[in-house]
User: What shape does this take?
Amino acid sequence: MLPIGVHSDAEALLCPIRMVLSKVTGKWQIIIVLALADEPLRFSALKRTIGDVTQRVLPENLRNLQRDGYLTRTVSPGPPVAVSYELTELGQELVALLKPIVFWAKDNIETVKAARRDYETPAG
Assistant: This one.
């Protein structure tokens, strides 16, 4: 069995698995990491690539990913000043783990949609 169980809130806060997964498996963290998979991107290009992330949420998530060592932030003096983000080796390792999940999701979306329809249709 995977070591995911805890017996208290205090133990949950110290669980290394939860400490890592809770910071990298949120919607935006995964999308940001995947957006940076192929090349470094400037902030505006990253925002355009993702599309629906807000101006407030993107920098917050970038800071968290940088703090945990998944990406680096580089400021190039201007004019104009350019800020770009690039995955670290740790971030690239994470992408390698996420890519099979992305392909699995793409391959299985119709099955998931059908299961949702079946679940929402009352048995009659």
